[in-house]
Each structure stands twice: as structure tokens, then as C-alpha cells.
Amino acid sequence: MKMTFRWYGEDDPVTLSKIRQIPCMTGVVTAVYSVPAGEVWPMDDILKLKNTVNGSGLEMEVIESVPVHEDIKLKKGNYKKYIDNYKENIRRLAKAGVKCICYNFMPVFDWTRSRLDYVLPDGSNALVYYKEDVSKMDPTKMTLPGWDASYSPDEIKGLIDEYKELGEEGLWSNLEYFIKEIIPVAAECGVNMAIHPDDPPWSIFGIPRIITDEKNIDRFLSLYDDKHHGLTMCSGSLGCAKFNDYTAMVRKYSAMGRVHFAHVRNIKILDDGSFEESGHMSKCGSLDIVEILKAYYDTGFEGYLRPDHGRMIWGEKGKPGYGLYDRALGAMYMAGIWETLEKTGGKI
Ligand SMILES: [Mn+2]
Fold first, then answer.
1. First vs last Cα of the chain: how many Å apart?
2. Half-sphere exposure of 93 toward its Cβ, with a 13 Å CA cutoff?
3. Are 281 and 333 in contact (CB under 8 A)?
4. Fewer Cβ neighbours under 10 Å: the N or C end of the chain?
5. 33 among known catalytic residues
6. pTM above 0.90, yes or no
7. Which stretches of the chain are DSSP H helices?
8. What contacts 305, CB < 8 A, 6 or more positions away?
9. What are the structural domains of the chain?
């Protein structure tokens, strides 16, 4: 296991030098953020990023994310050009020493929450998803940090209608086409492709979401029989649905050698299926973080792991979910569990 930390580039208030001081860190997970979705990343930009990261004593072996253009997900318009661009990005990143690329196939919207600054009982701020509030949200009149803000309200509405028309099976078919195009390139370059599950793992705003549960992940993996075709397992995404036995899923897919990247954070699931992002420690939420890490350890996990979203604590201001302090606490908590697993041969 290699512990990593997400870094949003030179504009990120959490600097590389701060990340370097977290004792367990081997590298950062980052991306070229200046290029619109679908376009080829200039090699100079990739190498500049790599040199900056390496210059601070950290590795850049994981990219999160190379975004998938909506035309590819809808298999319309310029999808062929965008798939060619995607393949070129895989080749270029491989040349720069990247070993793993995280991506997702969520239509239009990335992770969705109803509030980004909910105050937990201990006074920290966290992201929450309250079902009732989400049901009243109008996605054409708002945006969230992970969403592509380049669309106008009319364009968003048009996209939502197109995805409703496409439906789940249509989305599966477009995903299959994309996978069969890109995985041979990734395999040739020695890059592991790691799809991020949908967050949350159910349909929102009436549009389909398909990377949601064990049955669908089995179906996803069966699209291409090659270890380069794999997963980012995210406890905060799959684990926020009561219908997922998250630890069992980690055990299964990690044993198959298909988990290349692990996102670990805790979630407190509420009675109506809403959830709050909590501190990483097992007692803070509904997931048993020790059991999750033990599942990785027992199955010989050799991929990358990062703390996922953190709360905002100690008065820190910054990108929701991506402050320094709580993620650093989470990383050290998990590094401590991992060291104990190693020293006891997993007998904890
Ligand atoms: Mn995640």
C-alpha cells in the first residue's frame, strides 16, 4: 500500500511542502486542471507538474481524474475524437511515469451533497447528503465544487433530458464501447485504469447511475478481462448505501487484483438513508475502518490509498472536503492501522 494525498495544483492552499510533512506520505494524486474535459493535455504541462511534485520529495504516480467528456458518455457528436484524445492522454501520462488513472462515468454531475458546511456536534464542518433536501434541489440553478461549471442552465437541462432518454442500458452500452477502446491502450502502456464509483450510488435528478453496487461492478469488470481494467474503491461512495456490504466488496475485488486505488473515509448513515461525512475513525461513523483496511491487507493490496474527503476542523477554510488537517489526521490513523496489520501479520 502506498499512502497518497489529493493535491489540486499550484492554486491549492494545501501546499506540497505541507503534504510532505505528513509522515506517511509517498505521493500526491493530482491532474492538469487547466485543460477542458475532452482535450489533450500538453506534455509540457504534465512534465512541469511532475517536476514540481517530484521536486518536493513526493511521487506523482496517480492521476485523478482524466475527465470523460459528456459526448463519450452519450456516444454522440465528437465522441470519436474525444476517445482518441483520451488514449493520447493515457500514453502521455504513462511517459511521465503515471501508473494509475482514476476516472468516473457519472452523467453530468460529480459527487452530490445537499450542504457543504453542516456543523457536526463537535463543532467541525462536514459535507452532508439529506435526501429530502436533495429532492428539492434544481441542478440547473446550482453548482457544486466537483461539477463542470462550464454549462449554462439550458445546456444542463438538455443534458439531463438526453440521459433520461438514454437510460441505464444505453449508458452501459456507451461505457462498454469506451472501455473496449481505451483498455488496450492502457495495457500497452502499463497504466491501471480505475473507475470511481458513482457518488452517491443511486440515480439522482432522474438520470441513470450504474457503478453503484456489487452486481453492477461485476458486470463492469466483465466488460474487459484484463487487470488494467479496474476500480477505485471508495468507501464514502459505495459505503453510504445500506444495500452495499462494503468490506465484503473490498475483499472480493482486491483478491481479484482489480482494485488499484483506495479512497477511505467514514460515513454516518442516517435512518432515512441520508448520510453525513464523519471523522475517519470507526467510532465516528457507520463504517469499520479497521475491517476495511484489514480486507485490503489480507488480500495483498499493493495499490494506492488516500484519505478521501475530510471535515473542516480547527477553523481551517478551503475547498470543501479537501482541507489539510482532517485528511492528515485520517491518513495517519490509517497508516497506524496499516503498520499494526504489518507487524502482527494481519492478526488484529
Ligand atoms: Mn472517492
1. 18
2. 30
3. yes
4. C
5. no
6. yes
7. 16-20, 43-55, 70-74, 79-95, 131-135, 153-189, 214-221, 235-238, 246-255, 289-298, 325-343
8. 1, 2, 3, 4, 261, 262, 263, 264, 296, 334
9. 2-343 (3.20.20.150)
Query: Tell me: the pLDDT tens digits for 5-40?
Result: 999 999 999 999 999 999 999 999 999 999 999 999
Question: How many angstroms does the Cα of residue 344 sit away from the middle of ligand 1?
Answer: 29
Name the catalytic one among 24, 86, 100, 196.
196
CA of 113 to the centre of ligand 1 (A): 13
Rg of the Cα atoms in the chain: 19
| Ligand 1 centre distance from Cα of residue 130 (Å) | 18
**102 has catalytic annotation:** no
Summarize the confidence of residues 265-272 as an average pLDDT.
94
Instruction: Name residue, grid cell 473507475.
Output: 195
**129: three-class secondary structure by DSSP:** strand
Contact of 104 with 238, CB cutoff 8 Å = no
Q: Which of 189, 263, 280, 284 is catalytic?
A: 263
Residue of 129, 322, 325, 333 marked active site: 322
The number of residues making up the chain comes to: 348
pLDDT tens for 145-181 read: 666 667 777 888 888 899 999 999 999 999 999 999 9
Catalytic annotation present for 322: yes
Cell of 191: 497504466
Catalytic-residue membership of 280 = no
Distance 170 CA to ligand 1 centre (A): 25
Given a contact cutoff of 8 angstroms between Cβ atoms, the answer to whether 223 and 207 are in contact is: no
Nearest to 92 by CA among 48, 37, 29: 48
Q: Which one is catalytic: 24, 100, 102, 234? A: 234
Element (H, E) at 101: strand 100-104
> How are the residues of the chain apportioned to helix, strand and coil, as percentages rounded to the nearest 5?
40, 20, 40
Q: 127 alpha carbon to ligand 1 midpoint, in Å? A: 13
Residues by chain with Cβ below 5 Å of ion ligand 1: 234, 263, 308
Cell digits for 58? 513526493
